[in-house]
Amino acid sequence: EVKVLDFGLARSADERVPSSELPSAHDSNSLNSADFSRAGITLDFEVDEASAPKVISLDTKKGRVVGTPHFMSPEQARGETPTTACDIYAFGLLLQHLFTERLPYDETESLSKLLKLVAEGRRLPLYGVDKDVAGLISQLTAMAPASRPTAATAVHRLEWILDKPKRRLRRLAVAAGLAVIVAGGLKYTLDLRRERAIAVSARSVAEQRRHQAEDLIDFMLLDLRDSLEPIGRLDILEQVARKSQEYFASTADEDPTPGTLRRRAMSQSNIGAVLLGKGDSVEALASFQRSLEMVAALSAQEPDDSRLRSDLGTAYLNLGRAQARSGDPLAAAASLGLSLEIFEALQTEAAAPEYQLGAAEALTEMGLVHGDQGDWEPALGWFEKANALHEQVSAAEPGNREWQVALARSRARVGRALREEGEAPAALELLVSALDIYRGLAVQDPSNMVWPFEMAELEKGIGAVYYRQEQHAEARVHYEEARRIFRRLTEHDPLSTEWLALYAGIHEWIGYAAEGQERDKEALRFHLEARRLRVQLSELDPGNYRWQHWVAHSDEKIGDINFEQGRFADALARYQAANATYRQRFDVDSADAAVLNRLGWSHVQIGRAWQKLGQRESARQEWQRAVEVIEPVTRSSRNAAWLDTHVTALLLLGRTDEARPIVEELLERGWSEEVFTELVRSAGLAHPG
User: Which one has a higher pLDDT value, 177 or 541?
Assistant: First the structure.
C-alpha cells in the first residue's frame, strides 16, 4: 500500500524514518519546527492535548496529523482525513513562501505551538506581494475547504497572471516558482489512485478530475516549459516530468477516448521535451516513442484528418531529435525523413504556416545531424532550405514576434554553418542580421531576458568568425560583449545553472583570443576563471555530469597552455585530472561516443606529456589506450574530431599505414588542427595545404 503525503511525498505504509535522520533531542518540546523542514522530513504526529506532538511513524490513521508542518492545511493539523482541498491549501502556502521569501509560520515556534497556529489558520501576513497573487493565495488558503478553488480554476487564474502585459519579469518568477512547487509532485495532479478509489461509484466525477489533472500537467510541462527553457531553468520541471510518467503509467489499463488519447500523446511529448532538455535522452526517447505510438494509432483511424497527420509529423520530428541526441544518426535521419515527408505533403494541400514551420524544423534537425558528424557541407544545405521557409513565413506576417524569433535562429544556424565552411563574409552577414532582429525585440520588450541571451550567443558566434580568420583583437571585442551580457544574466538569476555555464564558457573563448594575441598569462587567467566557475556549477548541481565534463575540459585547456610553455609536469597533472573525470563517466555509460572521444584524447595528451618527460614506454601505453578507446567509435562514425583522436594516436605510435586512409579523409575535408598537422608533416604524408 502506498500513502501519498502532501505534495506527492510517497512512502510505503510500513516504512519508518531511521533515527539517524531525525533531529537529536531529549525532549520533543526542544525540537524546533524548522529542524524538520530543513531536513526534508514529513512528520506524522499523534495528537495529545496534554503534551507536545510525538514523532512516531509515516503510516496514517484517523487522529494522526500527516504532512509537512509549515505547509499543511488546518484540517490536517486537526487530524482530519486529508482531501484534495488540503493540497490546494498547501499550494497557497507554498506560493506565499515563494513570494515573501519567508515560511508561512514562524520557524522558531515549537511543534506544539506550530500545530495550534496551523489548526487555526493563523499564518504570517502577506507583505510586498502583487495584489493579484495575494488574492489568489487568499482564495487557496480559505479556512473552509469548500471555499477553496479547484485545481482547474487555480490554473486558469495563474495563466491570467502569467499573461498580464508589462509584467514579464514577474511572469518568469511565477513560472519558476510554480514549477518549484509542483516539482515535489503535486498529489492531486500526479497521483489520482486515491481519487479513483473514492469515486469508483461516481465515474463522471473521476473523469472530470482526471481531465483537470491532465490539464495541470500540460500547463506545467508546456506553458511553464516555454517560460523556463529560454532562461535555463528546465531543471525545475525534471521531477514534474518524472512524476507525470508515474501518473500515466497508472492509467495504462484504461480505454481512453480518442480525445483523451491525443491529449496524453501531447503530454508524453512534453515530458520527453523536458527530459531531453535535461540530457536524459534514454527516458526522453521512451516518452517520444509512446507519443508516436498513440498518434500513429489515431491517425490510422482517421487518415484524412490533417490535424492528426500534423501531430504525426511532429511526433516523428521529436523522436528523430531524441535519436540524434542519443548518438543514433541513422535512426534520426529516418525519423526526420518521415516527418519531412508528412509536412511536405500537407503543404501541397494547404499553404498553412504551421506546415511550413514543421517542415523547416525537420530540415533543421537534418542539418544538425550532419553538423554533429562534422559534415558541414550537407548540413549547410539543409539549414539553407529551412531558412528559405522561415523567410517566407516571416515575410507573410512581419509583425509576428514568434516567427521573427524563429527566423533569427534560422539565420544564425546558417551563419554558423557558413563559418564552419570558411565562408566568413557570408557568415558575418547572416549572424549580424540575426543580431539586429534581437536588438529590435529588446527595444520593444526590454524586460524579456531571452533577448539578451540570444544577443550574447550571437556576439560569441560573430567573435568565432573573426577568431577563425585569426583576427583575434576583433574576436575579443565580441567575446567581451558576450561576457558582459552573460554576467548581467547571471546577476538577474543566480540560480540558473545554464546561464552560469555560458558565463563560464565565454571566459574560455576570451582565453583563446588572448592566446592568439600571444598574451599567455592573460589567457591562463581566463581559463582558470572558466574552471573556477565550472567547479562552482558542479557543486551547485553535483548530479549533472555536464558540469564535471566542462571542468575536465578546462583542465585539458590549462594543461595545453602549460605544455606549450614547457611546464610538462604541470600539464601531465591537468591531463590526468581530466582523464579521471572522463573515466568515471565511461564507467557509468560506456556507449557515449563523445565521452569516449574525450577519454581517448586525454590519453593522447598524457602520452605526449610523458614523452616530453622522457618516459617513452609510459607514453606508448597511453597512446595504445587511446586507440583501444576510440577505434570502436570510428568504425561506426566519421565524425572528424573522433577521427582526429584516432589518427593522432596511430601516428604517435608510428602506425603510419593504418593512419594513412584516415589522414587522407581528414585532409579532403580540410581538417587542419595543429597537432594533426605537425604529425602528418613529420610522417611524410600529404601536406594539409
Answer: 541
* CA 587 – CA 584 distance, rounded (Å): 5
Residue 209 in this model has a pLDDT that exceeds 70: no
**Would you list the DSSP string of 12-34?**
ETT----GGGSPP-SSGGG-BHH
Question: Beta strand 43-46 with 64-67: parallel, antiparallel or unpaired?
Answer: antiparallel
Q: Which residue has the cell 614547457?
A: 566
Q: What is the CB-side half-sphere exposure of residue 410 using CA atoms within 13 A?
A: 27
| DSSP 8-class letter at 110 | B
Q: Is 199 helix (H, G, I), strand (E, B) or coil?
A: coil
Q: Please give the distance of CA 614 from its chain centroid, rounded to a whole number.
A: 45
Mean pLDDT across the stretch 37-63? 38
Q: What DSSP element (H or E) covers 66?
A: strand 64-67
CA atoms within 13 A on the CB side of 564: 15
Residue 414 DSSP SS3: helix
Q: Compute the distance between CA of residue 535 and CA of residue 528 in angstroms, rounded to an integer.
A: 11
| Contacts (Cβ under 8 Å, ≥6 apart) of 427 | 415, 416, 418, 419, 465
**Res. 193 pLDDT band, cuts 50 70 90:** very low
Closest CA to 355 of 297, 409, 309: 309
Cell of 206: 473521476
Q: Which of 494, 527, 418 is nearest to 462 (CA)?
A: 418
d(CA 519, CA 46): 69
Q: Cα–Cα distance between 176 and 220 in angstroms, integer?
A: 10
Nearest to 460, CA basis, from 487, 441, 491, 481: 481
pTM value surpassing 0.70 = no
